[in-house]
Design a protein that fits this description.
The protein is mainly beta and 253 residues long. The protein has one domain: Jelly Rolls. 3% of the residues lie in helices and 56% in strands. The strands form three sheets. Strands 1, 13, 14, 15, 16, 17, 18, 19 and 20 form a nine-stranded mixed β-sheet that branches. Strands 2-3-4-11-6-9-12 form a seven-stranded antiparallel β-sheet, with no helix packed on it. Strands 5-10-7-8 form a four-stranded antiparallel β-sheet, with no helix packed on it. The longest helix has 4 residues. The relative contact order is 0.19. One of its GO terms (molecular function) is metal ion binding.
């Protein structure tokens, strides 16, 4: 019985500043950054922590064959795409786009405040799905001192209805996304099933995992489950401001 924990400090992330309005921290190889040891984690291909200055952003650009999530941390993100979607999302909101056969979109900060968001790419279980878009607007109460399950596979979801209301988002991969914001000294428990793995990002605050790894803001943790047994995780917020984190859980690839 064993569980593998690999701590990835924020200081080790590649920082990209390609233009005056953008600062990005890449968890995996992306754009001008290539590290043969950091190309993906299972079916997780991209985790970018982006800061976008006011009245600027990503102009229209294409994507295909990728499940793309955006989690807004601060500020407001305005999305517009070739499928006709056009909306502005604030803190705690989740945006989902299944690029499939191909889609173009823009992501802009039209406000007066700095925008911070995580962009996450998960490889789909096959190529050439019909493109799709959806979003969910969540309040702090949805994730406060609990694991908020925001995405799962279509098989777990049970049907293909989506983008209606504020429920869980089904995706084209055996993966789950959880978000939580816990108070200082609060412990959130999670049982990692055998032959599964997860990628944990401490978005804000600080976090202790199984009293072994201490994480600060923007740190990440790769967790490899056991081959035979389920493994418990205890995530405890340390410090006065608690902890805000996201867990990306998936089958071992």
């Amino acid at each position: 019985m064993s569980i593998g924990l690999k701590h990835i400090p924020a200081s080790s992330l590649y920082v990209s500043r390609p233009t005056w309005w953008l600062e990005s921290r890449f968890h995996f190889s992306f754009a001008e950054y290539y590290n043969p040891n950091r190309t993906e984690f299972g079916n997780l291909r991209v985790v970018n922590d982006d800061l976008v200055q006011p009245h600027s952003g990503f102009g229209t650009h294409p994507h295909r064959d990728m499940e793309i999530f955006t989690y807004v941390i601060d500020g407001e993100l305005t999305h517009k795409d070739s499928m006709g979607a056009h909306e502005t999302l604030g803190r705690g909101s989740v945006q989902y786009m299944s690029a499939g056969l191909g889609v173009t979109h823009s992501e802009m900060n039209n406000g007066d405040k700095l925008l911070r968001f995580l962009q996450i790419w998960i490889k789909p279980d096959r190529k050439h799905y019909k493109p799709n878009y959806g979003s969910r607007v969540f309040g702090r109460e949805d994730r406060h001192n609990k694991l908020h399950h925001v995405a799962t596979s279509y098989d777990n979801y049970g049907n293909t209805e989506k983008d209606e209301g504020s429920g869980i988002i089904p995706i084209h991969q055996d993966a789950n996304i959880f978000i939580s914001e816990i108070d200082s000294d609060f412990t959130q428990e999670y049982l990692l099933q055998r032959r599964r793995q997860l990628y944990l990002v401490c978005i804000e605050g600080s976090l202790s995992v199984n009293k072994i790894v201490h994480m600060e803001a923007r740190d990440a943790l790769e967790v490899e489950g056991d081959e035979k047994d389920d493994q418990p995780l205890e995530l405890t917020a340390t410090g006065n401001r608690g902890a805000h984190f996201i867990m990306l859980e998936m089958a071992k690839a």
